[in-house]
Amino acid sequence: MDRPDVHSLWRRALNLLEGEITEISLNTWIRPMEPVSADQGVFILSVPNDFHKTFVDQYVPLIRNTLKSALATDYEVKIIVGSPEQSICPPDSAASLLDASPDGTGQISNSRLNPQYTFEAFVVGSGNRFAHAACVAVAEKQGGRNFNPLFLYGGSGLGKTHLMHAIGNHVMARQPNKNILYVQCEQFVNEFIYTIKENKYDDFRNKYRNTDMLLIDDIQFIEGKEQMQIEFFHTFNTLYESGKNIVMTCDKPPQSLISLEERLRTRFSCGLTVDIQPPDYETRVAILKRRAQINHVTVPDNVFEFIASNIASNIRELEGAFNTVLCYSLLAGSITLEVAAEALKDIIQPLAGKKIDSAVVMDVVARYYHVTVEDLKSNRRNKEVTNPRQVAMYLCRNLLNMTLPQIGQEFGNRDHTTVMHSCNKVSDDINGECTLIKDLDEIKKRIAS
Question: What does the buried/exposed string (b/e) look like for 143-156 if buried means 16 or more CB atoms within 10 Å of the residue's CB?
């Protein structure tokens, strides 16, 4: 469908939307959107920036219903960021992706990388410093086997995808002839299903086995898919043996992918496996300040502190909370602590609504490990007490945002360097101990309950 027809369709939908939402919301968020295309059952609209997209996403179901009423066609609605002139690849179009790639020019990879995800835009903190360094090393020294494959794992919204795109963007900027291929595992699976259906194995293998660097997101999606695992096993081997880099992200470490073939688990673990932890308080504040800078807004420090103290789970939720405050401030006319508290009153973590202090943390940790609070404050150095003490200090630091001297005082007037060592040890141990991760999750639930 050509561009004039798309604009005509969108104007018909806008006429109906005028009666569905307030005028200020319509003029602020809906009218600035530009129609891009309406092909293959997907109606694509563009918005000027990420901030705009974050707010508009809530209107997608309404826009879809309105399009259906106005056009008598049930379109899927997709919102993109950037100029409507850029070439857009329709979602789940496995055939078009396969057909575009065998020449090895790198065009597919260029269109799949998000240019906003760079190393410069990534906020480095204690929870992701090692992961960031590993990704930089891979981007600058492709071809070596010390970091191949690179396996990044951690919870949702912690920056794994950002770092993966940053690797690709870094390499493409310096070596534009490189064939860098980024793909989400779900898309990879869909393409393979299409390959089986159409008997296009050569196209599929040419695409994935002739790339210089394969970046595959959410690799856990191949769990339980036996034929898919066989195909990926051979693709992995082909790339690895030819010295090509492989970078994967996952929500868990390789050894926890229990329904994955053993030979794949061992290959995933043969390079560098890196954990990404939730950001600490200082990193959360730095991320919020970066978002304010990007959006060209001035935000009081106490607003940053309020958001960072109450949203601690992941970066995506943190940025979402910040965007919510910005949107609310447009209606309120200013950004203040009161405005932020009102904007986030329904989404802040339960922990923020309950009075939690170091005494509560120590009591829960002591009960969990079957020791006493007096043990945690004592000078006893046996493992049965030392480990719980370090966990309690770590939680006081990361849940309550206490300073090192404050924690030291609560734990029997210990020096701040001792506290720092304890917190760092727990952070380091999390990278390789699944049991500790489960312990921390359970303790946090008990603290919040």
Answer: eeeebbbbbbbbbe
CA triplet 418, 419, 423: central angle to 5 degrees?
A: 120
Taking the whole predicted model, whether its pTM rises above 0.90 is answered as no
- The pLDDT value given to residue 143: 52
Q: For residues 181 and 216, is the Cβ–Cβ distance under 8 A? A: no
- Please say whether the beta carbons of 299 and 306 come within 8 A: no
Whether residue 405 is preceded by a cis peptide bond, meaning omega within 30 degrees of 0, is no
What tens digit of pLDDT does each residue of 76-101 get? 898 888 655 443 343 344 444 455 44
CA distance 264 to 349: 38
Spatial separation of the C-alpha atoms in residues 180 and 169, rounded to whole Å: 9
User: Residue 137 contacts by C-beta under 8 Å, 6 or more apart in sequence?
Assistant: 147
3-state secondary structure (DSSP) of residue 247: strand
How many alpha carbons lie under 13 Å from residue 316 in its C-beta half-sphere?
Answer: 9
Q: How confident is the model over 284-297, as a mean pLDDT?
A: 86
Q: How many H helices and E strands in the chain?
A: 22, 8
Question: What is the bridge-based pairing of β-strands 42-47 and 34-39?
Answer: antiparallel
Tokens of 445: 């639930």
Burial 331-352 (b: 16+ CB within 10 A, else e): eeeebbeebbeebbeeebeebe
Question: Is 211 within 8 Å of 204 (Cβ atoms)?
Answer: no
pLDDT at 15 over 90: no
pLDDT surpasses 50 at 416: yes
Residue with tokens 């027809």: 5
> Rg for the chain (alpha carbons), in Å?
25
Q: Is 418 helix (H, G, I), strand (E, B) or coil?
A: helix
The pLDDT of 388-401, averaged and rounded, is: 88
Tell me the angle at which helices 160-174 and 129-140 cross, rounded to the nearest 10 degrees: 20
CA 302 vs CA 163, 285, 308, 398: distances in Å: 29, 10, 10, 18
Contact 64, 75 (CB under 8 A): yes
Is 159 within 8 Å of 198 (Cβ atoms)?
no
What pLDDT, in 10s, does the model give residues 333-348?
Answer: 788 888 888 888 877 7
| Distance of alpha carbon 26 from alpha carbon 268, whole angstroms | 49
Does residue 33 contact residue 62 with C-beta atoms inside 8 Å? no
